[in-house]
Design a protein that fits this description.
The complex is a heterotrimer of chains A (252), B (314) and C (204). Chain B is mainly α and 314 residues long. Chain B has eleven helices and two strands, in the order ααββααααααααα. Chain B has a single domain, classed as Arp2/3 complex 21 kDa subunit ARPC3 (Orthogonal Bundle), CATH 1.10.1760. The radius of gyration of chain B is 19 Å and the shape is globular. The relative contact order of chain B is 0.13. Chain C starts with 14 loop residues before the first helix and ends in a 5-residue tail after the last helix. Chain C has two domains: 108 residues, no CATH class; 69 residues, no CATH class. The longest helix of chain C is centred in the C-terminal third of the chain and has 32 residues. Helix content of chain C is 76%, strand content 0%. Classes of the chains: A alpha/beta (252), B mainly alpha (314), C mainly alpha (204). Bound molecules: adenosine-5'-triphosphate (ATP) and magnesium ion.
């Protein structure tokens, strides 16, 4: 028998309270250690999908098994276990950064895991250093630039040492250097990763596979370079062939 | 109405702080039983909202402007117990971040604006709310409750100043009540307008603090009576020093200068043709309260055209 | 827009900033309480308090102009409330005393707030057994006040750029609808913050 997938989504459907159908029958799987990209136009349902992966949507986990993390369906009983396993980076850093100082915010996740004392401090320091914000512990989130806020959020995830990272637009609003820094950082993390993004260049660099989502449905899935080089497919879904692939051929 | 340090005697300040602390403890205890987890961040953001809303300027004649206090609005949107904590959070941040309102006076400011403001506002709202239906009922009740809550908070503030021997009661009571009868009018209109505009975007948010059962409403009916009683009690002072009232109004109203020109509907709080000044002024107070109830009703009719179509309004 | 002007100086490195928050809070409270009971015959105490505050301000390395501006901004309230005393016998003396007491208390509070980051104040409240629900509300409020004040400023600007009517009634309506929008936005943000808190393992 093959090893269990880190994430398995089977026939997932979801509509918001106001009736907006955001996901209709989405199915895919991510193997442990793999990095998969999710791309698609605005409003495709990317963020909605990611919110399902650690059980914040639907509001009460139904245990239906539409989403499985390491084989386990999300239920009320294992919700905290699931959230410990899957770290989620939100699209808007202002939603995620909720403590008065950067240091406390990075410590928020680990503290929920029961960590404290010098070990907690060490983790916070290390996580901030990894995102290039060493020494920012005492700063207030509102004094940070948008890109810095995003990196603090990422540090908050790193400090939890989750096995699976689910990232919603990790590189938006970063300057080119910051973007490269995050790219290198993500590449160095052994965790399973699922990245929703409009930054196709980073998909090429990081992800071995991509899933294209549009109108709440998966319209294509496959090996990154082959899929992103399909000009017609990209244009049909509000995307474009990334520059790095302009001069390459699909089967190079 | 933020009292700075230096004006309250130690006993008054400590006493007020003790009362506030007890009420806060009780509110927290009650909230721990009834609060849903998702309301915790809502309270934080609501406190932020009240803070920000207090910075929005409503133009008043002559280039001056007034602003919202928000205790009743918070009580209508979140329920009285949550509103007390929200308003206290606003006052604490104003004091400890912006030095607005004294540190020793924090307990008294909390008592006036958070505890009395929210509990009286919320209580009177729930009481009057039952007189009308739909959004119109909500708006009418909230407007009246907002006026009462400002008036009661101002009365408490005046009592504290008088107890501290900072100013004589016969001066400060009528002055504060007179000025805030007009400021409260602004609060009533703003509260009503804000509720209507929230209902236009997300109708389900208005009335979120509504009790699901009417079990505890029996605790509340004192609200309206209290307002009437206080108006009747406070009014006698008004007749004793009409000049003082006007004088302080012009000084106090540096932010709400319309007060001095708007004047009271019942001149000098005395009803012509009635002998005893005490009885007359008491009657004037009651009449003022009833008048405000009428104004609130008109406000409700004006802002919510038809009871039926309220939900489809944009 | 950034809001550094609000707590621009609360993180300087100075002997005053380095003092523990509880000590500064205690000192401020003591001074304020002493002012609350001060009588005219205590004028030496007022002089001592002034000297202490000036020394503290100097040691804090915060520009004197900044502190004075904050003081002058809030001073009108003090003076207005103090005029109430003019109606009492011996009014002039009482007025002067009230203004002096209140101004010194205010100066102490301004010095405290500008040398102590709010995060430390929260920690202090937590240790003083303030109910954790209130501390949580305060922490969230402090975190999002800047986000929302920004939003309020943007709303006000957008409104101003499209306001063609000078009618007071209409402008009240539009300010109120701005406030309404602000509430809707904050309650929606509260939903998202709740989601984020849950996602990060928060248990109620
Ligand atoms: N809270 C909500 N209530 C109702 N509808 C919503 C809500 N959040 C999102 N939607 C709708 O669900 C659909 C999917 O939204 P989602 O945020 O998942 O898109 P997305 O792919 O992440 O877009 P983007 O690239 O802009 O981030 C959209 O049509 C959106 O309007
Ligand atoms: Mg999205």
């Amino acid at each position: 028998m093959a090893a269990v997938n880190a994430i398995e989504v089977r026939d997932l459907a979801f509509a918001y309270a106001d009736g907006t159908p955001a996901l209709r029958g989405v199915s895919f799987a991510v193997a442990e250690g793999e990095c998969v990209g999710i791309i698609g136009p605005n409003g495709a349902g990317k963020s909605t999908l990611l919110l399902h992966l650690n059980g914040v949507l639907p509001e009460t986990p139904d245990g239906s098994g539409a989403v499985r993390v390491f084989g386990a369906p999300i239920t009320k009983a294992n919700l905290y276990e699931i959230r410990r396993t899957v770290g989620l980076l939100f699209q808007d850093p202002d939603d995620q950064l909720l403590c008065p100082t950067v240091g406390e915010d990075v410590a928020f996740g680990p503290r929920q895991l029961g960590l404290g004392g010098p070990e907690l401090g060490a983790r916070v320091t290390a996580a901030l250093a990894r995102v290039g914000l060493a020494g920012f512990e005492a700063r207030s989130p509102h004094h940070l630039s948008r890109g810095e806020k995003r990196r603090v959020c990422l540090a908050g995830l790193l400090a939890c040492e989750s096995r699976v990272l689910v990232l919603d637009e990790p590189t938006s609003e970063l300057d080119p250097r910051g973007r490269r820094g995050i790219e290198a950082l993500l590449a160095s993390i052994p965790a399973t990763m699922l990245v929703a993004t409009h930054d196709l260049e980073i998909v090429v660099e990081l992800c071995s596979r991509v899933v294209v989502l549009d109108h709440g449905q998966i319209v294509a899935a496959g090996e990154t370079v082959a899929l992103l080089s399909d000009e017609a497919l990209m244009l049909a879904h509000g995307l474009e062939r990334p520059h790095v692939l302009r001069h390459r051929h699909p089967h190079e | 109405m933020h009292v700075p340090d230096g004006f309250l005697s130690l006993q008054t300040a400590v006493g007020a702080a003790a009362i506030s602390a007890v009420v806060v403890g009780e509110c927290v205890r009650r909230l721990h039983r009834t609060l849903e987890p998702r309301q915790v961040p809502l309270m934080g953001l609501a406190a932020t909202f009240v803070f920000a809303a207090q910075m929005l300027n409503f133009p008043v004649a002559g280039g001056t402007s007034g602003h919202l206090l928000g205790a009743t609005l918070a009580a209508v949107l979140l329920g009285p117990a949550a509103a007390v904590l929200v308003m206290i959070a606003v006052l604490v941040v104003q004091c400890l971040v912006f030095a607005d309102g004294g540190l020793l006076a924090l307990g008294a400011n909390a008592l006036n604006m958070a505890v009395i403001g929210s509990l009286a506002g919320g209580g009177i709202y729930r009481l009057v709310r039952r007189l009308g239906v739909g959004l119109r009922g909500t708006v009418t009740a909230a407007a009246f409750a907002a006026w009462c809550s400002v008036l009661l908070a101002a009365t408490a503030c005046a009592v504290e100043l008088a107890l501290s021997d900072t100013a004589p009661a016969r001066l400060v009571l009528p002055a504060m009540i007179g000025v805030h009868a007009v400021i409260g009018l602004g609060e009533a209109v703003i509260t009503a307008l804000v509720l209507v505009s929230i209902a236009a975007i997300r109708p389900e948010l208005v009335g979120g603090g509504e009790p699901t059962t009417h079990r505890r409403t029996s605790l509340v009916p004192g609200g309206l009576l209290l307002a009437l009683a206080l108006a009747a009690l406070g009014a006698p002072f008004a007749s004793s020093l009409p000049d003082g009232l006007e004088w302080v109004a012009t000084r106090f109203g540096f932010e709400h200068r319309a007060v001095a020109t708007a004047g009271a509907p019942l001149p000098d709080y005395a009803v012509p043709g009635i002998g005893s000044p005490l009885l007359a002024t008491a009657l004037a107070g009651v009449a003022g309260t009833l008048l405000m109830l009428g104004v609130s009703y008109l406000l409700g009719r004006l802002l919510v055209p038809s009871g039926r179509r309220q939900r489809s309004e944009t | 827009m950034r809001h550094d002007f609000l707590d621009r100086y609360s993180r300087l490195a100075s002997p005053v900033h380095a003092l523990p928050a509880w000590l500064k809070a205690l000192a401020t409270l003591t001074l304020v309480m002493a002012m609350a009971v001060a009588r005219p015959s205590w004028w030496p105490a007022l002089v001592v308090a002034t000297a202490l505050l000036v020394a503290g301000a100097w040691l804090s390395r915060i520009p004197a102009g900044f502190l004075l501006r904050r003081l002058l901004l809030l001073e009108p309230v003090v003076v207005v409330v103090a005029t109430l005393a003019l109606w009492q016998p011996d009014g002039g003396m009482r007025f002067a005393l009230l203004v002096a007491r209140s101004t010194l208390s205010l100066a102490a509070l301004i010095l405290f707030t500008n040398t102590t980051p709010f995060g430390e104040v929260l920690e202090l409240l937590r240790r003083c057994r303030v109910p954790s629900l209130l501390v949580t509300v305060l922490a969230l409020m402090y975190r999002y006040v800047f986000v929302l004040v920004d939003e309020a400023a943007r709303l006000q600007r957008a409104r101003a750029s499209r306001a063609f009517s000078r009618s007071a009634a209409r402008s009240w309506r539009s300010v109120a609808s701005g406030a309404g929008q602000l509430f809707v936005r904050s309650s929606e943000r509260a939903e998202r913050v709740f989601t984020a808190m849950c996602a990060r393992g928060w248990r109620p």
